[in-house]
Amino acid sequence: MRDTIFSAALSPVTAAAAQAAFKLLDIEGATRCRQLMSDVRHFIRRLHEEGFDTGDTGAAIVPVLLGNETLAFAMAGQCNVEGIYVMPVIYPAVPKGTERLRMNVTCDHRREELDYAVGALVRARTAVEERPFLNR
């Protein structure tokens, strides 16, 4: 009895929104997934062209492996200045020596935005390399 006292049904608006989302998935889901994976491959290819290590990934969450906590924080800060919101992932979330930046590609990103993000990473790396005390 107690479990039903604190339960409530979805509002009609919420139920209608969920139903509309499922219909949209039926209509656009496969196309959007194909486009997303094409954009992910493009982003990873561009990162590799610039010498970044993404590990063995094919998912929309793309790690940029840096192997250094200080470098990860410094590069994340530089990217944030350029409007690229990226968070460093450090120990204990990942093993020491595998620190990284976590990049997320979505269906809403345009290729130009992905290329800008790669450029921001390159500029961040260059800025950090010019400050050797950060690159340890």
Fold and architecture overview:
By secondary structure, the protein is mainly alpha-helical. It contains 4 helices and 3 strands, in the order ααβαββα. The model has no long low-confidence stretch (mean pLDDT 90).
**Spatial shape:** elongated
Strand percent estimate: 5-15%
The largest sheet is: 3 strands, antiparallel
Helix content: 40-55%
Overall strand count: 3
Oligomer: single chain
CATH fold naming: Aspartate Aminotransferase, domain 1
Structural class: mainly alpha
The CATH class name reads Alpha Beta
The total number of structural domains is 1
State the order of secondary-structure elements, H for helix, E for strand.
HHEHEEH
List keywords for this structure.
single chain; 136 residues; mainly alpha; Aspartate Aminotransferase, domain 1; 3 strands; elongated
Outline:
Helices cover 54% and strands 10% of the residues. The chain has 136 residues and is mainly alpha-helical.
Give the helix/strand layout.
Blueprint: H1 2-5, H2 12-49, E1 61-65, H3 69-81, E2 87-89, E3 100-104, H4 111-129
Helix pairs in contact: 2-4, 3-4
